[in-house]
Protein 1
Amino acid sequence: MADESTQIAVDHYTADEWVAESTASEVTSLRSSINDYIYENGRRYHAYHAGSYWGSNDEKAMDALDISHHVYMLLLRGKLHLAPIPNEVNRVLDVGTGTGVWAMDFADLHPEASVIGTDLSPIQPAFVPSNLRFEVDDCCDDWLYEKPFDFIHARGLFGCVSDWDRFYKQALQHLVPGGYLEQVEWSVWVDSDDGSAKGTKMDESGHISLEAAKKFGKSLQTVNEMEENMKKAGFTDVTVHTFKIPVGPWPQDKRLKNLGRYQRLVWEESLEMWVMMLWTSILGWRREEVELHLMEVRNELRNSKIHAYQIAYVFLLPYSKSFIDSIPGGFAMDENQPSRQYRYESTI
Ligand SMILES: C[S@@+](CC[C@H](N)C(=O)[O-])C[C@H]1O[C@@H](n2cnc3c(N)ncnc32)[C@H](O)[C@@H]1O
């Protein structure tokens, strides 16, 4: 072993190896900065690109995301996706992966696949299937993946993206021929067939959030705007599946009753994380005012006379050769570019 007086032999690196080595150590030293979470109004928020997303990432929010996953699974009758991808896939991306629950299930079911889950928050577990890795990344930045994907999955990205046109173009540029982008979203407002949700605090909440998100610069009208945005980005071959998600166990149908029971739980667990930042920082409400409003919503969630539901959409977007051909210079991805593992910015 070398002591202080011994000269340390210098290892030899190629330029590329040295870049890889430096990046790895930078990742380690900077990893802590993404955990310097922001605390506000009793909730915890992401530090990477702080302030760019309104949802909190604390334990309660994480629990709510995991319950939502169960709702999505009930909605799609136990399927992780509707896109007709082959049984064996190579590369899969889950954008805005949250707690990573979808990506973990997918990686377990597809041991042959190499799965990447990205998010602004590093809230995913450390021990995951060996064919899965999580990265802290902002999907609104340039996508710098080294190889295209067979399947790109995005779920619950309402209010996460200001420029959907760019998002869809980047996603489609990162698909292999035959690949699919699937996006699953639900409305942030409620409807009812018998008018019982009209004028409720639940109804009002959705509209307040829509207004706040507009001011914030990331629309929450995602479900209404997606198809047009996808078509604007150059795709005509969009398939849309529409579902109703009851909020509460009010439906007669057993399956919907069960779905509604879980969705009510999602509401109860998520309400504050959905609105606290938008209503206080953007609309100027006081924390107590928000809490009072949410207390009324909670009461309504237990009112059997309110038959509210949300609309969920699943959009399937296949790889489009005509779109890729229309990009000046051809396929926009540089296959030789090294993949970016993490992007960090100091939060100080
Ligand atoms: C409603 S959650 C959905 C999580 C997950 N897709 C699911 O369905 O369980 C939205 C997630 O998107 C992440 N997010 C928001 N804006 C983002 C962005 N610009 N880039 C990457 N992730 C983002 C949030 O941190 C959050 O985890």
Protein 2
Amino acid sequence: MVNTKLQNKLRKLTAQAITQYAMIADGDRVMVCLSGGKDSYTMLDNLLYLQKVAPISFEVFAVNLDQKQPGFPAHILPEYLTQLGIEHYIVNEDTYSIVKEKTPEGKTTCALCSRLRRAILYKTAKQFKATKIALGHHRDDMLETLLLNMFHGGQLKSMPPKLVSDNGEHIVIRPLAFCAEADIAQYSLSKGYPIIPCNLCGSQENLQRKQIKMMLQDWHVQFPTRIASMAKSLQQVVPSHLADNHLYNFTDITTTGEPVKDGDIGFDEPQLVNSANIDVSTGTQTKQAQTSIEFLEIT
Ligand code: SF4
């Protein structure tokens, strides 16, 4: 039976993310990238629902890239999408052979595979006149990426909820930016989506990402509010309290003789307020902290 409580929660969070970042505008044609995993099924589900209730009009169509991995069940998505009755395209491109041929033995194939996939999706978006490309990354993907970049890349950088593609031609959106992976997993189970396993290519998931995922899960068990607080922190960046000269002009700061509103309190310990308004018992954000849904009302 479909978990309607989770369904409502995920739909609301998706609507909030879409509104907060102006992801979808009237007249948009949204290309939903469907991999056959729980995240992209949930994203499609949410977008189709919001399409019905939103006071704006936008089109949704689905695209799946068949990368010709051995054992890929090519019939599953066309059958699912036909049954849903929505516009969809299956793009057949044998990136599997290219990746196998070009990647030295023992090296991870994911980097090249992702680059190829991205290029194909951009080409497809152009071909089918999409104005937005929707990807199914969720809140936990964003936090994992943030920590990956901090731990291994020396950068404070995550996955943005909305961005301009590398070639400058497309707007990429992540409507599940506020949704927790655990909720998506539970919801997906209740919906009984025909999941296509993501490891058909035989490649291992990035080990560093795997370790960070485990660390976050461990933290969540020990400190239920931590993940929600970290996610909120991505929306409350204070450049003057970091150390990037490009982001904040430290060189030219001068005294004003006036107290600085929200300024540093000299040598005090940082004051840790629950600015994310997180319910300590559940680790979720309380109502007061949630952004109002301006144009997408959920019933
Ligand atoms: S796991 Fe396989 S299909 Fe997925 S990105 Fe890596 S190489 Fe590509």
